[in-house]
Structure formats: structure tokens, C-alpha cells
Amino acid sequence: MMMYAVLAALTMDFFFGEPKCFHPLIGLGTFAEKIEAWVNRSPNSKLPGLIALGVVVFPLWWLAFMLERAVEPMPLISFFFSAMVLYLAIGWKSLLEHAEAVRVPLQRGELKQARQKVAYIVSRDTASLNPEGVSKAATESVLENGSDAIFAPLFWFLVGGLSGVLVYRIVNTLDAMWGYKNARFFYFGWAAAKFDDVLNWLPARFCALTYALCGNTPSAIKCWREQAPDWKSPNAGPVMASGAGALNVKLGGIAHYMGDSEVRPQLGCGEAANYESIQQAESLVNRSLILWVSILVIGFILL
């Protein structure tokens, strides 16, 4: 039944993408904002962030767990709920659409529009990016979010079912909201960021391995081994280094965040990034997803 739920969720995402009117994550974000405003009163303590994380995650996990147990004796209803939750947790089509919104104007030479579109998917300043900078930012986003928005949700669904993927998506969303290194969130967001790192540790390495298998394998493994340890994120490093190596493209380098410049290590090797790199990253994600689904189907048949 789990395999059918995965196939149904991916099919729904492929044809419909994210819900246009109301997405449950919007409601989660509103709830999380209210909790943060209520709890975040001690700027130099990590405890309020830990409490807020528990207040948001535990009740929703318990609700999902009890629902999962309640519908377990009813296979069709269980299938429906599982497929719907996984569908809402993944962002395959959305990721590709955002990437194409950058690639198409960049290919046409419309740099201003490409800068505007890439600003939707990265946190760095994009107003002064040249075509290579826009291409780097978009390619990095596709590779990293391939793990966060596709492979990690699939992993936690296969491991923990409905409640497992729900907890992952909640924590990942809270990290995106609270994980900033500024005065307001430096301590408060620590718990969400660390929990997100823990939940992503294994899926990120499976994703990095898949990227390597679906691209230039020797180059990907070499970049993963040599470059990932220097990246500031323990999970984005392996994913992006392997992906860049698999594509034979150079990523990383200087990035600007809120007026500050950050010199990041180089990832990958080979050619400088351009609009084709974005499309190649999309293709790598798609091939990797096909590999995951193929392994799942073969495992189901054999077992």
C-alpha cells in the first residue's frame, strides 16, 4: 500500500502541483508565527525555541499518529490519507517550475527578470548578480531543494509513514522560518535548525549518492569527499557537492546576504554555471527520482 501511496502522491504533484488556493503549510506558518511571538521573549536563551518547537510539533504528530492508527484497518482510507499527506509534503513540480522561471528569461537575455525570479528561491541578494551568478544560485537551489522537498519527504514517509513525513515537513518549515542567524532568531531558532539537521542527515546522503549514480559518478564522489566537509551546512554540503560534481559544473563562491559578503568554498568542477546548468540540475533531480521509484517498485515486486 505504501508504494501505491508514493506513486499516487507523485502523480498528483506532477499533474496538479501545489494547491493554488490554500496549502496547509500556510496555516502552519501562521500558527508558528503566533507561537514565536508569544514564546520568544528571552533573546539569549535557547529554551524558548525548544519549547516552541515542542508546542508546534508534538500535537500535530500525535494527531497524525492517532489518525494513522485509526484508519489502519481500512486500507482504502489509509491509502487516501497517506497519499494526500505525502502529496502536500513534496514539492517536485513546484521546484521545477521555479527553476524554469529563472532559466527561461536568462536564456533570452532578460537578466533583470531572471534576478527577480531567482530571488524567490534563494535568500541571498540577487539585484547585482550577473548571468553566471543567477545560474549558480538557481542550480544550487535545485540541487539542495531536491533533497529537502523531494527525497527527504519520501525517505521519512517510507520510514515513518504519515506521521513521519508530517514531522519532517513541519520541522523543515520551522527551520525555514526560525533558522536565521540574526538577533531575533539566533538562539530561538537553534532547536528547529538542529532538529532539521538531524532529520536531514541520512536522507541528504542518500540524495547525494543518488545524484552521483545518476550523473558523472567519479567526479561526484570526488567532490563529495573533498569539498562537502568545508561547506557550512552538514547536509547541503554533500548534496550540492555531489550534484555539482555529477553535472561537471562549478558552484559556490562569493554570495551577498543583507549587505554582507560571504566567501563560500567552491563546489563541483568543470564548466562555469550558465542557464543550461539549471536545466541539467532539473534533469538530474528527475533521473534521481526515477531511480528511487524504480528501486521501490522492484523491492515491492521482489518482497
Keywords:
three-stranded mixed beta sheet; mainly alpha; globular; 3 strands
How would you briefly describe this protein structure?
By secondary structure, this protein is mostly helical. It is built from 11 helices and 3 strands; from the N terminus they run H-H-H-H-H-H-H-H-H-H-E-E-E-H. Helix 6 runs parallel beside helix 7 and helix 9 (217-227) runs antiparallel to helix 10 (236-247).
Note down, in words, how this protein is organized.
It is a single chain. It contains 11 helices and 3 strands, in the order H-H-H-H-H-H-H-H-H-H-E-E-E-H. The protein has 303 residues and is mainly alpha-helical. The chain has one domain. A 3-stranded mixed β-sheet has the order 2-1-3. A hairpin with a 2-residue loop joins strand 1 and strand 2. Helix 4 crosses helix 7, helix 5 runs antiparallel to helix 7 and helix 8 runs parallel beside helix 10. It starts with a helix and ends with a helix. The mean pLDDT is 93.
